[in-house]
Each structure stands twice: as C-alpha cells, then as structure tokens.
C-alpha cells in the first residue's frame, strides 16, 4: 500500500491532525475514483476508510448558502456526515470571526486567543 495513504500517529498528533489527514486522503482517493484513475488498491483503501468512518461524505459549504455561499469547488469541502452535523450543531452558519469569538469566550485557554485572519485574494 502506498505510504501516502497512511496516517502516522506520534505523541504530538492531535485528533484534529488525524481527522484532517484522513479527510485529505479520502478526498484524494475520491477524486481518483471520479476521474477513473484509481488503482484497485486505492479503491480498497477508500472503501476501508469509508467503512472505518461509518459514514458517508457530505458537501460542506465553507461560506453557507444562507450567507450567499456558492457551489463553486473552492467553497465546497467533502467531510464525513457526522462531523458536518456536529459542526453545524455548534456553529450554525456563524462567520469565522463569530466562531473564533465564541471559542475564545467559552472554550480556549484564557492564556491564548484564537485569531481569524482573512486570506489574501
């Protein structure tokens, strides 16, 4: 199996790192399956990941449609349904600034501050 499709766990690996890497692998494999360039081993790996996650992937609009988000590929992320549901249960359609403020106020260690910086166009 291609080592680029495995997630190495170290003492410094956070659950967020693990989930992000697994999602990245799934998105890469899904793209190959859609483009019909996936090997048999890559198809097996994708099935195993989907079974392990016990979920289907759903489209998440980074800018919600309710806030004029589009269906452009840049605005869509494929994420497991359970994570998507939990994200919206916590944040609804809040802006990144509102999310950061809420997390800073209620969840982040008071010695730290989560800051949102818009990306350059």
Q: Counting H and I runs of at least 4 residues, what is the number of helices?
A: 4
Residues in helix, %? 40-55%
Beta-strand proportion: 5-15%
* Largest sheet geometry: 2 strands, antiparallel
Q: Helix and strand succession?
A: HHEEHH
Number of strands: 2
**Mean pLDDT rating:** 80
Spatial arrangement of strands, main beta sheet: 1-2
Provide the low-confidence segments as ranges.
none
* Backbone shape: globular
Structural class estimated from helices and strands: mainly alpha
The Rg value, from CA coordinates, equals: 17 Å
- Report how far apart the termini are: 38 Å
Q: Can you characterise this structure?
A:
- By secondary structure, this protein is mainly alpha-helical.
- 46% of the residues lie in helices and 8% in strands.
- The chain has a domain at 3-84.
- Helix 1 (15-34) packs across helix 2 (40-53).
- It is globular.
């Amino acid at each position: 199996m291609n080592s680029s499709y495995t997630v190495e766990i170290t003492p410094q690996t956070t659950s967020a790192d693990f989930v992000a890497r697994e999602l990245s692998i799934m998105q890469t494999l899904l793209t190959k399956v859609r483009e019909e360039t996936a090997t048999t081993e890559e198809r097996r790996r994708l099935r195993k990941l989907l079974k392990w996650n016990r979920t289907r992937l759903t489209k998440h609009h980074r800018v919600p449609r309710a806030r004029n988000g589009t269906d452009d590929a840049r605005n869509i992320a494929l994420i497991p349904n359970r994570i998507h549901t939990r994200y919206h249960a916590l944040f609804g359609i809040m802006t990144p600034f509102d999310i950061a403020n809420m997390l800073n106020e209620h969840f982040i260690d008071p010695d730290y501050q989560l800051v949102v910086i818009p990306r350059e166009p």
